[in-house]
Amino acid sequence: QVQLVESGGGLVQPGGSLRLFCAGSGFAFSNFAMNWYRQAPGKEREWVASITDTGYSRSYAPSVKGRFAITRNNARNMVYLQMDSLKPEDTAVYYCNDGEHWGKGTLVTVSS
Length: 112
What we know:
- The chain is mainly beta.
- It contains no helices and ten strands.
């Protein structure tokens, strides 16, 4: 059974940083590209970042490029999202995705 479990969310002030974690299990993690999405209150879910199976290639939504960094550790079945220079508009539930399955998400709130 595929499981994706996100963690690391919380309350942070504008300009601050957070690191999100996603633990994958029940599938051949190292064979899959991984993605982060987010859903803000009252808005549709949107793509944030992706990383290839090897980790050599990464891509970002324009709204987060230069501020967020996606990485992975295939030995630990983990994918990470380092978020810097956070803005109030980054407030959302952040989800991990393997192209098919979703975790339950972790809430990030950016507020003073």
